[in-house]
C-alpha cells in the first residue's frame, strides 16, 4: 500500500497547498517568488527528506519520528527526546488535517458563491458558522472512510492517485489555454510583486514571506513512515515513499504553479475581496478564464470541483497518517487514555484513533469562529511544528548518534552528516523567518501569532514533562533496546 499512498499524497498535497496559499504567493512577491521560491524550498526540503529516509531505513515503524529520536538520542535522553518529537509531530499532523479540511470547506463555500452568481451577482456567501459545519461534515466523512478495512483504504488511495494525476496535469494545461489573456513568459518568470498592501517593502523580506506557500505544501511526507508497519520491505519502500513524495511534489507542483500563473494578468483584481470569488485568487482565475472565453464561468467552477475532490483526498490521507501516529504514540503510553487509542478493531484498523484525530482537528478549527488570526496561529503549527519534529531526529543523528548510527539498506554514504546539518539549519531558518511579522505597522490584527502558537506548544510539552511525564514515560520501551 505504501508506494500508492505516498505517490497519491504527494500529488494531492500540491493541489491542496498551492490552491490554499496561492493568495499568499501572489501577495508576497508574486510570480517570481512562487516560481523560484518553490525550487529553493524544494531543494532544501529534499535534504530533510533524504535524512529522514536514511533514518527510516534503519527504524521502519509506524511511530516514525518519535521512535527515531528515542533510538538516536541514547538511553539517557531517549524518553525526553521521544516525548518532544512525538508531541510536535502529532499536534502538527492534527493542525495539517484542520487546515486542509477547513480550506476545503472554504473552497466549497466559494464554489457555491460562484455557482449562485458570484459576489457581484447576488451569489450566496456562507457565514463562518456554515463553513465550520462544512468542515465538521468533511471530517466526519474522512473518519468514516478511514474506519474501513485497509484493503478498501488502499483502493481509495489508488483512486485518489489517478484522480490527482489527471487533474493536476489537466489544470496546468487547460487554464492557460482557455484564458483569453495570458501573461508573458517574462511576467511569469521575472515579475516581482512589491505591491502587497501590507507595508512590507524590503524585497528579501517579501520573498521570505512568500516562501510560506511552498513550505506549507511540501509537508506530510512523513506519512510514508507512519505506514511502514503495513508495508512489505519497509526498510526500502519507506525511504522510497518519503523521497518520491518530495520529488514528485517538486516537479508537479512547479509545473502547476507555472501553468496557472500564465493565466494571471491582473494581480490586484485577483486579490480584491470585491471580485466574484470574494478574493479567492485561484477561484477567480478559473472562473474568469472560462467566463471571458465562453461567456460563462461554469467550466471554471467545474475545474474548482476537481481541486475540491483532490483536497478531499488529501484530508482523507492526512487522517490516515494522524491515526497511525496516534496509535503508535498511545501504544507507548504517551497520550491521555492511551489504552483507548491504541486499540484496533477486527480489521486491524485503529478505529478509536481515527475518530479521536478527526475530533481534535475539528476542535482546532473552532478557533476560526473567534478570530481568523487565532486560527492562522493554530495552523501555523502545521508548518513549523511539523518541521521541528522532522528536524529533531536528524539533529540527534548528526550529534549524539553520529558515530553509533547503524545504517539500513538505504543510506547517504559519506554525505550523510553534511546533508543532515543542512536539513537542521534549514528548519531552524524557516522557524525564525515564518515567525516574522507579515504586515506593518504591527497591531493585534496584523501580529504574526506563530511564535505564540509554537512557543505555547513547546511550553506545554516541556512543562508536562517536568511536572509529570518524566516520572512515567519511558519512550517506546518495547523497542528501544531491540
From TrEMBL:
Domain of life, source organism: Eukaryota
GO cellular component, one term: membrane
Topology of the protein relative to the lipid bilayer: Multi-pass membrane protein
An MF annotation (GO) of this entry: L-alanine transmembrane transporter activity
Signal peptide: none
Keywords attached to this entry: Amino-acid transport, Membrane, Transmembrane, Transmembrane helix, Transport
Entry-linked InterPro entries: AA/rel_permease1, Amino_acid_permease_CS
Subcellular location: Membrane
TM spans (from-to): 6-23, 35-53, 94-117, 129-155, 161-179, 242-264, 294-315, 353-375, 381-400, 412-440, 452-473
Short name of one Pfam family: AA_permease_2
Record's keyword annotation contains Mitochondrion: no
Gene3D superfamilies in the cross-refs: Amino acid/polyamine transporter I
Family: Belongs to the amino acid-polyamine-organocation (APC) superfamily. Amino acid/choline transporter (ACT) (TC 2.A.3.4) family.
Descriptive protein name: Amino-acid permease BAT1 homolog
Amino acid at each position: 500500500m505504501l508506494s500508492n499512498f505516498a505517490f497519491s499524497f504527494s500529488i494531492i498535497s500540491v493541489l491542496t497547498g498551492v490552491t490554499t496559499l496561492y493568495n499568499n504567493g501572489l501577495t508576497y512577491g508574486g510570480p517570481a517568488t512562487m516560481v523560484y521560491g518553490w525550487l529553493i524550498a524544494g531543494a532544501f526540503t529534499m535534504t530533510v527528506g533524504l535524512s529522514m529516509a536514511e533514518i527510516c531505513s534503519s527504524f521502519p515503524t509506524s511511530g516514525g519520528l518519535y521512535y527515531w529520536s528515542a533510538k538516536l538520542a541514547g538511553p539517557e535522553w531517549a524518553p525526553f527526546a521521544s516525548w518532544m518529537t512525538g508531541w510536535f509531530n502529532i499536534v502538527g499532523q492534527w493542525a495539517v488535517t484542520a487546515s486542509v479540511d477547513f480550506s476545503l470547506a472554504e473552497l466549497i463555500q466559494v464554489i457555491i458563491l460562484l455557482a449562485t452568481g458570484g459576489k457581484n451577482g447576488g451569489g450566496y456567501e456562507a457565514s463562518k458558522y456554515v463553513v465550520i459545519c462544512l468542515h465538521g461534515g468533511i471530517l466526519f466523512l474522512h473518519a468514516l472512510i478511514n474506519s474501513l478495512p485497509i484493503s478498501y483504504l488502499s483502493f481509495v488511495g489508488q483512486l485518489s492517485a489517478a484522480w490527482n494525476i489527471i487533474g493536476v496535469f489537466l489544470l496546468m494545461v487547460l487554464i492557460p489555454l482557455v484564458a483569453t489573456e495570458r501573461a508573458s513568459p517574462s511576467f511569469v518568470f521575472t515579475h516581482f510583486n512589491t505591491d502587497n498592501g501590507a507595508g512590507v517593502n524590503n524585497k528579501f523580506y517579501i520573498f521570505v514571506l512568500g516562501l510560506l506557500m511552498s513550505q506549507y505544501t511540501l509537508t506530510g511526507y512523513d506519512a510514508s513512515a507512519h505506514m511502514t508497519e503495513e508495508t512489505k520491505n519497509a526498510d526500502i519502500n519507506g525511504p522510497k515513499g518519503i523521497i518520491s513524495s518530495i520529488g514528485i511534489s517538486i516537479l508537479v507542483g512547479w509545473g502547476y504553479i507555472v501553468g496557472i500563473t500564465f493565466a494571471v494578468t491582473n494581480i490586484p483584481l485577483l486579490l480584491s475581496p470585491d471580485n466574484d470569488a470574494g478574493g479567492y485568487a485561484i477561484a477567480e482565475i478559473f472562473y474568469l478564464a472560462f467566463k471571458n472565453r465562453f461567456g460563462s464561468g461554469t467550466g471554471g467552477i467545474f475545474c474548482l470541483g476537481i481541486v475540491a475532490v483532490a483536497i478531499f483526498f488529501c484530508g482523507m490521507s492526512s487522517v490516515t497518517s494522524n491515526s497511525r501516529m496516534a496509535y503508535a504514540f498511545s501504544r507507548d503510553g504517551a497520550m491521555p487514555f492511551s489504552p483507548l487509542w491504541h486499540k484496533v478493531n477486527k480489521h486491524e484498523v485503529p478505529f478509536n484513533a481515527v475518530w479521536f484525530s478527526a475530533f481534535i482537528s475539528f476542535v482546532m478549527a473552532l478557533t476560526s469562529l473567534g478570530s481568523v488570526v487565532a486560527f492562522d496561529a493554530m495552523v501555523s503549527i502545521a508548518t513549523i511544528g511539523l518541521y521541528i519534529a522532522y528536524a529533531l531526529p536528524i539533529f540527534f543523528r548528526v550529534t549524539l548518534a553520529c558515530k553509533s548510527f547503524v545504517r539500513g539498506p538505504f543510506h547517504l554514504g559519506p554525505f550523510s552528516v553534511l546533508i543532515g546539518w543542512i536539513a537542521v539549519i534549514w528548519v531552524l531558518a524557516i522557524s525564525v523567518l515564518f515567525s516574522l511579522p507579515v504586515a506593518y505597522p504591527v497591531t493585534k490584527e496584523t501580529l504574526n501569532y506563530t511564535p505564540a502558537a509554537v512557543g505555547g506548544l513547546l511550553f506545554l510539552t516541556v512543562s508536562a514533562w517536568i511536572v509529570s511525564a518524566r516520572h512515567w514515560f519511558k519512550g517506546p520501551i518495547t523497542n528501544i533496546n531491540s
